[in-house]
Design a protein that fits this description.
Layout lengths: L1 H27 L10 H8 L5 H7 L9 E5 L2 H9 L11 H17 L5 E5 L4 H23 L2
Parallel strand pairs: 1-2
Length: 150
């Protein structure tokens, strides 16, 4: 039950620490880093089973990204998409759980810095989403380049 979920949250937090260390190394080298399923995923998924304040505390060393892109997809649509995959469903692939995760994501979105967040309609065709994401990233990189010029 809850002990198992706490252990899983701890494992995700440990993995995040390693991930953050590697991100910091790449940033120090001047690289642009793109990552998926970062801190908001942990907060949304882990808080379904564990206390949100505790999950936030576990992830306190996560660095704040310059841009977060949230692909907005209703839980039923997400579940239908994964339903076609071979193999047994993963632990979170239940409509009730995904609905709770969706509520947690939306609470996070409401609290997020709008300057650093873009929410996109995740039901759009993949090619259209790729173009929208690329435009957001290029706009960010362009604004950072301009702000760093003498």
């Amino acid at each position: 039950g809850h002990q198992r979920e706490a252990i899983i949250a701890l494992l995700f937090a440990a993995d995040r620490l390693d991930h953050v260390a590697r991100i910091k190394e790449r940033l120090a080298e001047g690289c642009v880093v793109v990552s998926d399923r970062y801190l908001p995923s942990s907060l949304a998924y882990q808080s379904v089973f564990c206390d949100l304040a505790w999950v936030k505390d576990l992830n306190r060393y996560a660095i704040t990204p310059d841009l977060t892109i949230f692909l907005d997809v209703a839980p039923a649509v997400a579940l239908a998409r994964v339903g076609g995959r071979p193999g047994a469903p993963e632990r979170y692939e239940k409509l009730e759980t995904l609905t709770r995760v969706d509520r947690a994501y939306r609470a996070w979105l409401a609290d997020s810095d709008a300057q650093r967040l873009r929410s996109l309609d995740g039901t759009k065709p993949m090619s259209e989403l790729a173009s929208l994401i690329q435009a957001e990233v290029m706009a960010l990189l362009g604004s950072q380049t301009r702000s760093n010029e003498p």
